[in-house]
Design a protein that fits this description.
Blueprint: E1 2-7, H1 11-24, E2 35-42, H2 45-61, E3 65-74, E4 82-86, H3 90-98, E5 115-119, H4 124-135, E6 141-145, E7 147-153, E8 159-166
Length: 172
């Protein structure tokens, strides 16, 4: 089964992202707006049984931190993906590194660029038009993050939460 790890932002940020995603992101019906911490990886039940205590340990070691979003950006020329750019945050980087070390699958395919996708798989002309308009918009969000989620993919391609891990909690 495929698993992944992500942070889901507040409803306010999700509503803003979804106002674009429903038109420009073919993955809109498959997963809510999120910040990917760990790309999809294959794991069986016994591997997940080993990883869940590790995820609890990582969450326990983290303190809540703030994320800030001030603009849109894109991954052009690699892909025609448009996203809300999450500003650099030391604790977010630290969390990402912890989830890519030790017992966790080593599946880093790209440098970590924290973001919330709002459009992808766009044609070149479509991308240019949409990105040009969105660059003129102002985005100002700041919020506290205090958890991350382990997700799994269903047969229909959609993703659902397997378990949430709250920062700073005691190990159970």
């Amino acid at each position: 089964m495929k698993y992944g790890i992500a942070i889901f932002p507040s409803k306010k940020i999700q509503d803003e992202a979804n106002s674009y995603r429903k038109r420009y992101d073919p993955h809109y019906p498959l997963i809510p707006p999120h910040i990917t911490l760990k790309e999809a990886f294959e794991a069986d039940d016994s591997t997940i049984d080993e990883l869940v205590p590790e995820l609890k340990r990582v969450a326990n070691e983290m303190e809540p931190f703030n994320i800030r979003i001030n603009k849109v950006s894109s991954f052009v020329p690699v892909t025609n993906t448009i996203y809300l750019k999450v500003e650099p945050e030391e604790n977010l980087d630290k969390l990402y590194e912890k989830l890519h070390s030790g017992k966790f699958p080593q599946n880093k395919n790209f440098n970590f660029v924290p973001h919330i996708t709002i459009g992808q798989k766009l044609l070149d002309d479509e991308y240019s038009d949409i990105f040009g308009r969105m660059k003129m918009r102002s985005f100002k969000f700041e919020e506290k993050v205090d958890r991350f989620q382990l997700l799994y993919q269903l047969e229909n391609g959609s993703w659902t939460v397997y378990e949430s891990f709250v920062f700073g909690k005691e190990l159970l």
